[in-house]
Amino acid sequence: MAPKTYFGPELFRFLKQLKKNNNREWFQANKERYEKDLRDPMLRFITDFAAPLRTISRHFRADPRPMGGSLFRIYRDTRFSSDKSPYKTAAAAHFRHEAASDVHAPGFYLHLGPGEVFVAVGLWHPDRETLSRVREAIIKDAAAWKRILSASPFKKTWTFWGDSYKRPPAGVDPAHPFIEDLKRKDFVVVASFTEKDACKPGFLERVGEVFRSASPFARFLVKAQKLPY
């Protein structure tokens, strides 16, 4: 079967125009475009990505429900933000571990925005206990952590992203060979694509291949939480 094309330039055109017209009136007038050019293609991608995701791990979910599934809502939560723009200007999906239900859980992530197409793997803003378990796992098995980070497919594809503490956490040896990792607040790696990549046939398969190259990294984080991988 020939590789499918899921996304087109119209998805990025819609998001560019939404960025310039981030208000309810414009969105309501263009809601059919949102559904046809963004929401429905993303849901088709999520549905079809369930099969390759299972070959990476049986414990992550590609949930194609329009609400409450893998697809991120287009509506922003503005309650605690000074930016009151009502809509997000990127499309995104999060394939979470079955044992968790929010964006802070271990997961695989897809992001499609104008000039900003990337995938990510890991733990974003984990709570203190989760973060402590990852640090303990690195300290306990630094050799395994080193093998993961130095593996050629991982090293040439992925870059660490996120926040770090300025000082070592309490009780952590400042001279530890992985002190910079032990200071991380986020354990997330990212790999970049282009808009053209996203619009080509076979993008789904390419995303699966890239995610697979980070599978040992994801496994380490999941196992640190005593979860199945």
What this model shows, in words?
This protein is α+β, with helices and mostly antiparallel strands and 229 residues long. The chain has one domain: BirA Bifunctional Protein, domain 2 (2-Layer Sandwich), CATH 3.30.930.20. Helix content is 43%, strand content 14%. It has ten helices and five strands; from the N terminus they run αααβββαααβαβααα. The chain has a five-stranded antiparallel β-sheet. A hairpin with a 2-residue loop joins strand 2 and strand 3. Helix 3 packs across helix 9 and helix 4 packs across helix 5. It is globular, with a radius of gyration of 19 Å. The two termini are 30 Å apart.
List keywords for this structure.
229 residues; alpha+beta; BirA Bifunctional Protein, domain 2
Question: What is this entry, summarized?
Answer:
The protein is α+β, with helices and mostly antiparallel strands and 229 residues long.
